[in-house]
């Protein structure tokens, strides 16, 4: 009986209007009761399959429950897609842009991934090119250096400039020796001043404790204090002299020598590419070789321009360095001479006038000592 009732229920057509109401509101009570009975006593749709039969047919079809779930999921997807289309049309109603649900997301993700991949590939290619150029340049320069060492290769020489560079290096070595000796003099003289200061304090203390030798100890204490004061003034002049020589040697001359080093590297690169071009010109003149000769000619011209530019820079810096050296040393040697002469002559007034002439300001005693807060 259940099969017959199920067949009737499956083949029955109930027309529905657009507003969802049934066209035939009067239903047979017996049919309704039979359907209720089938739903109550029939199989569980969540656990079994649904059996349907055609009207008056003898065959039966089995529809799995999973198919119903798939249909429900598809219907939900259709509704979501419909809502996306409506939102897209509302947002682009003033523009002629086709609205495809999810297209912006997929295209945006694919575009961003492609952009990141292209950027990574571009960076890798750029780094590879840099390493390749560096390796080729290093190989050529090393080959040129070895050829020059063994006397097989030729090198570009500017005799006048090379002589000036050698004079500068020799001058720097001599000035470094002057700086070393001046620092040694400063250290020894500072120790002597400190000894005079301690000796003056000792004489002053003994003059208080030895009444019979009070005057003698007092004279010597005053002399040592005066010598200590003049020594501190001379130390100020010597320190200024040392500081100026140090700036000239380790900054001004060193800067020029750095430019000279860049010039020498440029000269080596220029000779390496020049030798490479000469070697190619001596070979056969086929299509491949002509292309290589053209590329070598371009590299040769680039390094030639770089070499000439740095050679000009070195010439200018050597000229300015010589003028600066003469000006600085003239002032510093005059200061050193006047300060030493005034100190050993005992002329305190002339010593102080020398410091004022060169705008040297002495630090008060204990100025170099850190404060109690800095010591914490």
Write the SSE topology.
Blueprint: H1 2-11, H2 29-41, E1 50-53, E2 60-63, H3 65-91, H4 103-149, H5 159-209, H6 214-281, H7 287-344, H8 348-357, H9 372-375
Antiparallel strand pairs: 1-2
Helix pairs in contact: 1-2, 4-6, 5-6, 5-7, 6-7, 6-8, 7-8
Give a written overview of the molecule.
This protein has 376 residues and is mostly helical. Helices cover 77% and strands 2% of the residues. It is built from 9 helices and 2 strands, in the order ααββααααααα. Strands 1-2 form a two-stranded antiparallel sheet. The longest helix is centred in the middle third of the chain and has 68 residues, at 214-281. It is elongated and about 110 Å long. Residues 1-28, 38-75, 77-81, 90-106 and 371-376 have low confidence and may be disordered. Keywords: Coiled coil, Golgi apparatus, Membrane, Phosphoprotein. One of its GO terms (cellular component) is Golgi membrane. Residues 156-356 form the AH domain.
In whole angstroms, how far apart are the ends?
103 Å
Which percent bin holds the helix content? over 70%
Structural class: mainly alpha
Low-confidence stretches: 1-28, 38-75, 77-81, 90-106, 371-376
The ordered H/E elements are HHEEHHHHHHH
Discrete helix count = 9
Q: Biggest sheet, open or closed, and with what strands and sense? A: 2 strands, antiparallel
| Gyration radius over CA | 51 Å
User: What is the general shape?
Assistant: elongated
- For the secondary structure, the number of strands is 2
User: Mean pLDDT, nearest integer?
Assistant: 75
Strand order of the largest sheet: 1-2
Strand composition percent: under 5%
């Amino acid at each position: 009986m259940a099969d017959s009732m199920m067949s009737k229920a499956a083949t029955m057509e109930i027309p529905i209007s657009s507003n969802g109401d049934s066209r035939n509101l009067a239903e047979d009570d017996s049919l309704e009761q039979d359907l209720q009975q089938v739903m109550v006593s029939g199989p569980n749709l969540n656990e079994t399959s649904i059996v349907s039969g055609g009207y008056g047919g003898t065959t039966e079809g089995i529809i799995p429950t999973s198919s119903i779930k798939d249909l429900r999921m598809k219907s939900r997807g259709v509704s979501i897609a419909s809502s996306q289309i409506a939102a897209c049309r509302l947002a682009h109603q003033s523009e002629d842009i086709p609205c495809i649900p999810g297209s912006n997301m997929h295209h945006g993700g694919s575009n961003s991934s492609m952009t990141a991949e292209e950027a990574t590939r571009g960076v890798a290619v750029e780094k590879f090119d840099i390493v390749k150029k560096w390796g080729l340049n290093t190989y050529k320069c090393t080959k040129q250096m070895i050829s020059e060492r063994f006397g097989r290769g030729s090198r570009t020489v500017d005799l006048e400039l090379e002589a000036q560079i050698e004079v500068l290096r020799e001058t720097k070595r001599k000035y470094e020796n002057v700086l070393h000796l001046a620092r040694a003099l400063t250290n020894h003289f500072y120790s002597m001043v400190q000894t005079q200061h301690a000796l003056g304090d000792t004489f002053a203390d003994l003059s208080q404790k030895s009444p019979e030798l009070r005057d003698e100890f007092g004279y010597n204490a005053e002399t040592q204090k005066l010598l200590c004061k003049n020594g501190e003034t001379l130390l100020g002049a010597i320190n200024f002299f040392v500081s100026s020589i140090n700036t000239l040697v380790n900054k001004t001359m060193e800067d020029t020598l750095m430019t000279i080093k860049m010039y020498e590297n440029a000269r080596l690169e220029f000779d390496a590419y020049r030798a490479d071009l000469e070697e190619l010109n001596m070979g056969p003149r086929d299509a491949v070789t002509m292309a290589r000769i053209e590329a070598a000619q371009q590299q040769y011209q680039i390094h030639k321009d770089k070499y000439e530019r740095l050679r000009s820079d070195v010439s200018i810096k050597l000229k300015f360095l010589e003028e600066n050296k003469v000006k600085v040393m003239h002032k510093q040697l005059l200061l050193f001479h006047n300060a030493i002469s005034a100190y050993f002559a005992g002329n305190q007034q002339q010593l102080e006038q020398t410091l004022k002439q060169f705008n040297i300001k002495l630090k008060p005693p204990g100025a170099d000592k850190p404060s109690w807060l800095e010591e914490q």
